[in-house]
Structure to design on (450 residues):
């Protein structure tokens, strides 16, 4: 048989497919054609079957699906280290919101670019965002080559981008139109949280998401303080409140779900809503430990996220994986809780289902299988921290770090390799970011004197 033509053949010492059998292949090869995976298997089988235009021989590397971030606010990178060590409500109301409310599209784009660089540098290929001026977040995503779902956030009070809910609905339609034919960018409707919105705008925004055929995401049950505020405002805990409004569904992504009862977990599972788990943000804001093992046991798709860099303070999914595993064990007093493979699933295949809740599970990135998008990450195994390799998944989850990130590829295109970005001019990005320090200080001064 004639070898099949393909754009690129990638080979590596060990491959984590994340397919249904979670196959691990030694001396593996992945053939890529038109941004999609054409074939995957042992190199000795794949190599004679394809005629690649290009080859990428990674050698002593662990090749895996690109990691995916199921919850972040990319542009918050510019607020990294601002207002650490505060409780959620104090942090939001007195530290973050007063500065954010003065943000401009330009500053949002710069923060998003920094976030993309940070994520790409640690093997992340896609994320779902929630912020403001998302057209500008999209501009950064478009330039750096990542894949993203953009969520323009809104509250019951005005955002820097629009004054009323009606303006917001127009903004979402425009955002959708703006990225209509973009191969890597789509949108989600993104109310901030129950306590910062109203029943009317939650219902209306959900209806809009249904009409537009897009996901609907919200922070939900993030802390006991949020539950108390929801009870006081609406007479119900966050999950029953959202359920009563009819907004829990397959298109719904709930971020955090820390304070949830067994009945509420069952309600989420029955609705088909997905959940993002953000252990580092929950720990740093002392929001609590999500019952993530119980959510998973109930059949909920739980993806892993970092949350924004102001509450983490890192966008590394590698550290998110380790924290997720350790926190689950600590919370449940069970060392068997959330094993490494389950954590890797949450950072790959499950995170992608949170990012694309409405797509067929087999059509999203997150596994290396024929017909899936060619989003890959590789980590150097010739590194003391990852040797010896008894169990590659364990090494990646418990011992991996950005220092070993060797490759990030999205849509079959290399975005990062061995310390070099292909689309980002890092020195000029870092020089712009440095200038933003004075700018953020000025905003803090404005907020203090307001
Ligand atoms: Zn968040």
């Amino acid at each position: 048989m004639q070898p099949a033509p393909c754009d690129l053949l990638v080979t590596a010492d060990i491959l984590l497919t994340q397919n249904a059998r979670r196959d691990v292949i030694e001396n593996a090869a992945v053939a890529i054609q038109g941004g999609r995976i054409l074939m995957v298997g042992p190199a000795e089988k794949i190599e004679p079957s394809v005629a690649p235009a290009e080859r990428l021989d990674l050698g002593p590397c662990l090749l895996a699906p690109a990691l995916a971030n199921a919850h972040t606010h990319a542009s918050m990178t510019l607020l990294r280290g601002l207002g650490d060590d505060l409780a959620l409500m104090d942090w939001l109301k007195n530290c973050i919101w007063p500065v954010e409310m003065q943000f401009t599209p330009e500053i949002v784009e710069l923060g998003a670019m920094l976030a993309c660089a940070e994520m790409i540098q640690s093997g992340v290929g896609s994320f779902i965002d929630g912020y403001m001026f998302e057209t500008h977040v999209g501009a950064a995503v478009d330039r750096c080559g990542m894949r993203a779902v953009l969520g323009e956030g809104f509250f019951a009070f005005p955002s820097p981008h629009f004054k009323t809910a009606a303006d917001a609905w127009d903004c979402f339609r425009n955002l959708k139109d703006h990225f209509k034919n973009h191969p890597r960018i789509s949108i989600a409707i993104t109310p901030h949280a129950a306590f910062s919105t109203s029943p009317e705008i939650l219902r209306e925004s959900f209806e809009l998401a249904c009409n537009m055929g897009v996901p609907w995401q919200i922070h939900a049950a993030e802390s006991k303080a949020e539950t108390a505020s929801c009870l006081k405002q609406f007479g119900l805990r966050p999950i029953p409140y959202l359920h009563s409004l009819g907004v829990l569904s397959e298109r719904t992504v709930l971020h955090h779900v820390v304070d949830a009862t067994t009945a509420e977990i069952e309600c989420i599972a029955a609705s088909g809503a997905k959940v993002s788990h953000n252990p580092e943000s929950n720990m740093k804001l002392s929001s609590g430990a999500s019952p993530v093992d119980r959510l998973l046991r109930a059949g909920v798709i739980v993806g892993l996220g970092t949350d924004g860099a102001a509450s983490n303070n890192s966008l590394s999914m590698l550290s998110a994986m380790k924290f997720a595993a350790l926190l689950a064990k600590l919370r449940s007093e069970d060392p068997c809780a959330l094993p490494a493979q389950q954590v890797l699933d949450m950072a790959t295949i499950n995170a992608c289902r949170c990012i694309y809740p409405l797509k067929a599970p087999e059509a999203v990135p997150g596994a290396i299988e024929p017909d899936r998008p060619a989003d890959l990450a590789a980590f150097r195994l010739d590194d003391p921290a990852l040797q010896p390799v008894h169990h590659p998944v364990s090494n990646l989850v418990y011992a991996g770090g950005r220092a070993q990130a060797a490759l990030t590829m999205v849509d079959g295109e290399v975005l990062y390799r061995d310390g070099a970005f292909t689309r980002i001019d890092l020195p000029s990005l870092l020089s712009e970011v440095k200038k933003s320090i004075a700018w953020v200080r000025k905003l803090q001064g404005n907020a203090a004197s307001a």
Remarks:
- The radius of gyration is 21 Å.
